[in-house]
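Thought: the user asked what Galactose-1-phosphate uridylyltransferase looks like in 3D. I have the sequence; next I should run the structure tool and report back without guessing.
Action: structure_tool
Action Input:
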Amino acid sequence: MERKTLISAFVEQIIAKTDFSQLDQIYLYNRILNLVDGVDKTGDYTDKSLIELADLLVNLGDTERTAGQKELLKTELLNFLVPAPSKVNQIFWNKYQQQGVNSALKYLYQLNQASNYIKTAEISKNKYFRYQSKYGELEITINLSKPEKDPRDIARLQKLAPTSYPQCQLCFTNEGYQGRIGYPARSNHRIIRFDLLNETWGLQYSPYAYFNEHCIFVDQKHQLMKIDRLTFRRLLTILDIFPAYFVGSNADLPIVGGSILSHEHFQGGRHEFSMDQAKIRQKITFTDFAHVKAGIVDWPMSVIRLSGKNKEELVELATKILNSWKNYSDEKVAVIAASDHQPHHTITPIARKRGAEYELDLVLRDNHCTKEFPAGVFHPHPDVQNIKQENIGLIEVMGLAILPPRLQRELAEVEKYLLHQPNQIAEKHLHWTEKILQQYDGKITAENVTSIVKQALGATFVRVLEDAGVFKNDSVGQKAFNRFVDYVNE
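Observation:
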């Protein structure tokens, strides 16, 4: 058994994995000793990873640390692994120039994993399965990665003076930020700067990734999200810089938009979604754009797909479709462009490369509300909100369901109900669960109940997407979709 102190074991791995040398050993030991309140512990740490050692270190010293305080300390400890922002950018762009874009992205991604900026262990807690629908294979996740808040942290937060720094969680000022109770630690956060149409933008990875190499492209300026001609130009230009990734934007209106509308940003990554694989249901043409291939996608939401080699033609046509949609109403199918001087129409755009061609999906969105549907006419309707009542954003538009963590506990009670066992099923799930009982009519067993509930979840997600589709996939809806295409062509 090789015995050494915990801090020494941590320092050894930091030196082995970074540009620090043995000459820095005492310096590193003392800096870490200070962070853990002057306490060290002897033991056998031979088989421990760097992150496992960090988990042990946060439990040294102050035994009253909350989960939030431990996370702040752990992030600060793992920051020793990460070079300064200037160095990370230098390494990234050197690799990009000498070895190619994939080598550069691999470096950045692995650095984020090693330093625990990407919460690999927490992400692994998410529940994931696939559901075969008439639209293709959808992905269903129950998001369990984000830790629950400690009541002690909540109490401390109430006593802290309000602050507006950083302005939001996407601002560049998060880079290296220590964090605080109620605000995530960002000591180990690094942003790759790049020029995007003569503006400075940043590339970073998502700490709680929903798919492979889930990244965020961020405007250096803190300004409101806006879908317009410039959006389409930015998306297609990003594909020139990072062609292996898709890139898309949440819509820029409430209800149909993402969770952060206050800062211009896109999402991307190395992942093929169900919508990417969806076929064209109906080819369409647009006047004066003979070189752009276009079609209506066979998908529960209303999607126009454009493809071609000429980037500027795609931008022009996408802008024409967006501007037409902003002013288009068809009350026969409850499509309302505006009311009370409030706009209701925008687009969720998604771009990708297919060989030498650009492909741009334009998902039509409408956020108007009525007395019957106060949460939104084209939002998950009340009968499926027991499963999903949050916004349908970019990722879900493409066929990956992000379901709330409450479902892990609630669906366990649903399974008990289906098996006629004592349960505490939530009232909101009763109607949904009774429909499952009727569908399977006495064929539910302890062996198949989990699979049956998963199938019901998948079917409900299909309904959620269909609710969000502005032109329904029936004869009435498709005729209405064609009326809109005719309107664009006028």
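Thought: the tool returned a structure. Summarizing for the user.
Final Answer: Structure for Galactose-1-phosphate uridylyltransferase predicted. The chain has 16 helices and 17 strands. Residues 4-63 form one domain.
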